[in-house]
Amino acid sequence: MRNDPGAIAALSEIPVVRASSLEAPSAGGSWSLDSLVGILSELSEEHPCGALSFCAEIIQEAQERGEPVAWVASTDSVFFPPDFAARGIDLRALAVIRAGGQAESLTAGEWLVKSGAVGLLVVDCGGEWTVSDSALGRLQKLAERSQCAVLFLTRKPRSAPSLGSRIAVRGCVAPAGSRPLLVDIHTDRDKRAAAGPRIHRCYHAPPGMR
């Protein structure tokens, strides 16, 4: 085949992007790290369907920006470490604190945020929590002062109320259609901006479930 000078010149105009320079997309919108800094947010699901996977996107964004991340677990159950590692999360840079219930979790959260040592704090509530506005207010003021993002993970239906009036961003993860592992993230509240559109995600099952 003859060399076509015009085609060669056109090819030379195509930009080349190295694979190593590509970054995974962040959660975006109301759920970008910049949007969550200095406020309290809550991400709910009625049944396990993708909240941990969506939370992993936020953690990955924080780590890519060099922000220390801490995870407070109020129950004996925590995320499955190999799943987080497969999503690109550096487990060595993710501090995990096991707390004995709601009171200890809130105390641990206040200490961590007040220290200024973390840029993102995830509190896995596990069961149903009843938190006073005064307790949330103390944590919110500390988050604003330390410029830390605080994210609560709760297990409740979308129709259930949020943890309290201090929650600035509330989202719910729910299955989308009949396809497994296809979910929608609904942002039902965003006090600082108009709630963005639904976020669609198709997550992959852990290796043991494929």
Could you write a compact summary of the structure shown?
The protein contains six helices and eight strands, in the order ααβαβαβαβαββββ. By secondary structure, the chain is α/β, with parallel strands linked by helices.
Question: Which characteristics define this entry?
Answer:
210 residues; Rossmann fold; 8-stranded mixed beta sheet; 29% helix; single chain; alpha/beta; globular
Instruction: Give the CA-CA distance, first to last residue.
Output: 46 Å
Assigned CATH architecture: 3-Layer(aba) Sandwich
Oligomer: single chain
Query: Helix/strand/pairing class, anyone?
Result: alpha/beta
- Determine the number of helices (DSSP H or I, runs of at least 4 residues): 6
Taking the sheet with the most strands, its summary is:
8 strands, mixed
The backbone outline, from C-alpha atoms, is globular
Q: Identify the CATH homologous superfamily.
A: P-loop containing nucleotide triphosphate hydrolases
Strand content: 15-25%
Q: Can you identify the CATH class?
A: Alpha Beta
Helicity level, as a percent range?
25-40%
> How many domains make up the coordinates?
1
